[in-house]
Amino acid sequence: MSDLLRIGVMASGGGTDLQSIIDACQAGKVPATVAVVISNRADAYALERARRHDVPAVHIPVGKTGSPEWAQADAEQVRVLRDHGVGLVCLAGYMRINGPALLAAFPRAVMNIHPALLPAFPGVNVQAMAVEHGVKIAGTTVHFADPEFDTGPIIIQAAVPVRDDDTADELAARILAQEHRIYPQAIKWHAEGRLQVDGRIVRLTGPGAELAPDTPGVLISPPLEAGF
Amino acid sequence: MSDLLRIGVMASGGGTDLQSIIDACQAGKVPATVAVVISNRADAYALERARRHDVPAVHIPVGKTGSPEWAQADAEQVRVLRDHGVGLVCLAGYMRINGPALLAAFPRAVMNIHPALLPAFPGVNVQAMAVEHGVKIAGTTVHFADPEFDTGPIIIQAAVPVRDDDTADELAARILAQEHRIYPQAIKWHAEGRLQVDGRIVRLTGPGAELAPDTPGVLISPPLEAGF
Lengths: 228, 228
Prior knowledge:
2 copies of one chain form a homodimer.
Chain A: E1 5-10, H1 16-26, E2 32-39, H2 45-52, E3 57-59, H3 68-83, E4 88-91, H4 100-105, E5 110-114, H5 126-133, E6 137-144, E7 154-161, H6 168-191, E8 195-198, E9 201-204, E10 219-221
Parallel strand pairs in A: 1-2, 1-4, 2-3, 4-5
Antiparallel strand pairs in A: 5-6, 6-7, 7-10, 8-9
Helix pairs in contact in A: 1-6, 5-6
């Protein structure tokens, strides 16, 4: 086993965020490797993506939140992640509430990505909520997970415009393009030990790298390094 | 009386947003004029700014929300605004809840500016709340007022980065610089009859003007016209 950070990705759906992480690792932009992918759904395309990259793909059914089956899945997830030597868990469109065992086993080492500028629009179907609310700026957030949904300390955010007459799908696509940039960046900073968590505040420490030029119509904070 | 839109500004504090509106009108960027300034506080510097520009400055004390004095102030505000031929009311750091008479007298013609990316952080002291929450992107919102606080249809938003170790004052100054751009822009669009309100959605209609170049590290949506 190399000294690369080993990532466990948990996903319920198509896994485009997973793909962006795999691609960034394989391109050498992030000093990490995806060691295992876990899904609560046997038919999640994320599992197929994993298999195509020879990454172990594990289906762990999850019962109703709080049920014995849910607690059992929580323990099973930890067992699988540890078996694969995982040092960082990345939730990537994982639509179930994590149990206490996972968070206890990986303190400040479970990240989540959410398609809104938290604390605005926590929950699900948030791109449609943003369109219906009439916001003019939406975005996405990478944060450390905590026992609540979408509330943990924020690592990086990207803001994008909402255009008049945007559909939820159009806005979701614009947000997703930035998710695929900021999630690998956040993982790189974590792999380099540069994220210092102080209560709710996440500080980026250490020497800065060359920065990416601004993307017109997008605001990312902290700024992305070149290549993301 | 010219055919310029006549604006009534209501402010409780220093009135820097008021100043940005006066300046934009005097520079000819906005086809409007500030016809009267109203404050609930006799010592508000906004009243002094008004007097320095020969704009009528009116102190209207406001009692406890819901009290007979509050209802009386509501009626008095409408009387003063109408006496000055006001067609648009701009709340600019006005820290009291408006009464029903004001909103009824100026339907879809009361604007407010709020120093956060609504619907995140409604209320007061929101720049400090953003810093304490650890968000990486904050901003400001111009919206039409409705009977609730900070909930009406959104016209324009500006997003700015929150830097590690920002104080609330540092963040507030960064936000304020954008307030002074987007509030005059929103007023111009209103004066030109280009804001179409459809439920919660505000659409910008009509031919677009030349756009301002992007400001590094700031995202504004809809984009500003040249000169703002």
